[in-house]
Amino acid sequence: MLIKLNTENPPDRLIKKAADILKRGCIISYPTDTYYGIGCDIMNKKAIGRIYQIKQRNKNKPFSFICSGLTNISRYAKVSNYAYKTMKRLLPGPYTFILEGSKMVPKIMLTKRKTAGIRVPDNNICIALIKELGNPIISTSASMPDNTILHDPSLIQDYYGTRLDLVIDGGPVPGQPSSVVSLINDVPEVIRSGLGDVSIFE
Questions:
Q1: CA–CA distance, 168 with 192 (Å, rounded to integer)
Q2: Could you tell me if 90 and 199 are in contact, meaning their C-beta atoms sit under 8 angstroms apart?
Q3: Cα separation of 195 and 14, whole Å?
Q4: Labelling 6: which of 112, 159, 167, 170 has CA 20 to 30 A away?
Q5: Cα angle for residues 55, 59, 65 (degrees, 5° grid)
Q6: Packing angle between helix 124-133 and helix 12-23, nearest 10 degrees?
């Protein structure tokens, strides 16, 4: 199923419909401020397992996840004053921050060091979905095994077929990755330079 949403002002009725699909343990594709993502409710381990299969990904490599804002992040990660000030300055935006996960995060979502990648995209559809769902959602790019990124929702639907339960068409996206920055121990480390400006960390 493919539905088209206005990114500026997504209708509550359709956001609720998408959130209800996630609540049933389903998998969706959705727009962000970087790529189109593939995701599910992070509290549904069966759905997470399905995404690992879809992406042909090793389970030793956890997915990032999306929160609706800083208050939401503080439930799922240990946020120091430094991390809070840094993220407040840059979020929502095209960044993935590596933080130490809290006990709220399922173990499958954490690295061996108990860290997690967390995003708050500058995209109203994402934020509205998470607020309606009540939990963060997985964030991994809609891509093929050779890492070709799929930017067109109709192509995403054609390629993944019945492996996805819903594709949300939110219009064009930048098509560049987020910048990944570790804030572990209050020592910023740029893991990947992407769409977000990382000059403040260099």
A1: 27
A2: no
A3: 29
A4: 159
A5: 70
A6: 60
Q: What is the pLDDT of residues 158-187, one digit of tens each?
A: 999 999 999 999 999 998 999 999 999 999
Rg (Cα) of the chain, in Å, rounded?
16
> Would the pTM of this model clear 0.90, i.e. be above it?
yes
Structure tokens at 19: 């959130």
